[in-house]
């Protein structure tokens, strides 16, 4: 049985769990002591669940920037610490018995945060530092690419970006091999690209022996199953979701035609940027037997409907509620947007991950 995390945070006293005796509160099994240099007294500190950003609890810092969070956790997991309106967060590894210390500058939380107190905290600190270094490096690359004077300069910068990405992934895999409950969490971050599927497949076997009940191990195993079920050559799993008119529309209803299954969202800037090209593609090949089945992973239907109208989308659209179970997203193991699959008239997957010119080239081969 998979343990569910239970966490109660307190500033001054422990709050008792519902259903437990009010006369005897349970003792906390973890403590996080922190110091935020430069923080104003009363600044709020939050601990968030890493899966859904749900606020598990909060406290405030004193005049010296000190704070303390105590609570209960049922299993080792990674949470996120957020300071007031600061846009970025810090990953915190907590387990029963954790006694951690955090030091950071309130104004520069993510870059300066240092968490100590356990072997697993040190592993996660290594990942946090790697992630932050890559973030800073990429911001510099993006700025230089925007200022580049010609395609030769941009091509050189793109190669630099690709090298930085490869170095980051190699370092992430090194961390994922560590004997720590943080390792499956790091491996989950690699699911954004199918290029890492062989590594995830090999490492997940080890995790299943060491951390079988970890929610990250379970997520990895589920992801692997979805990737195998949607591999090139497999029959595309059925999708049945509400369309713009509210009626359930099945992916299989488009059998007999080549179909691009397009996972996107109204909030996804790259998706919206590619919609005009997708529209041109659709108009060029619709008469030859091409259809598009758009799966919107949005939080609100009105945002999705507005984006469809703004972008002039005329192909089949269905709504995969991002606040609910996301049946299509989970079945297909979608970890990044936009994502596409190309199906043949029998519903078999003939290509995955094609976009732009690559997608058009493949369709031109199939529908000359």
From TrEMBL:
Record-level GO BP terms: cytochrome complex assembly
Q: What is its main location?
A: other
Keyword flag Signal: yes
What is an example of a GO molecular function annotated in this UniProt entry? antioxidant activity
Highest taxon in the source lineage:
Bacteria
Q: Which UniProt keywords apply?
A: Cytochrome c-type biogenesis, Disulfide bond, Redox-active center, Signal
GO CC term (a single one): cell envelope
Q: Which InterPro entries match?
A: AhpC/TSA, DUF4369, Thioredoxin-like_sf, Thioredoxin_CS, Thioredoxin_domain, Thioredoxin_ResA/DsbE_sf
Q: Where in the cell is it found?
A: Cell envelope
Q: Per the database record, which ranges form the Thioredoxin domain?
A: 230-368
Signal peptide residues on this chain, from the entry's feature table:
1-21
List, alphabetically, the PANTHER family matched.
THIOL:DISULFIDE INTERCHANGE PROTEIN DSBE (PTHR42852)
- Name of this chain's protein: Thioredoxin domain-containing protein
Q: Source species, please?
A: Solirubrum puertoriconensis
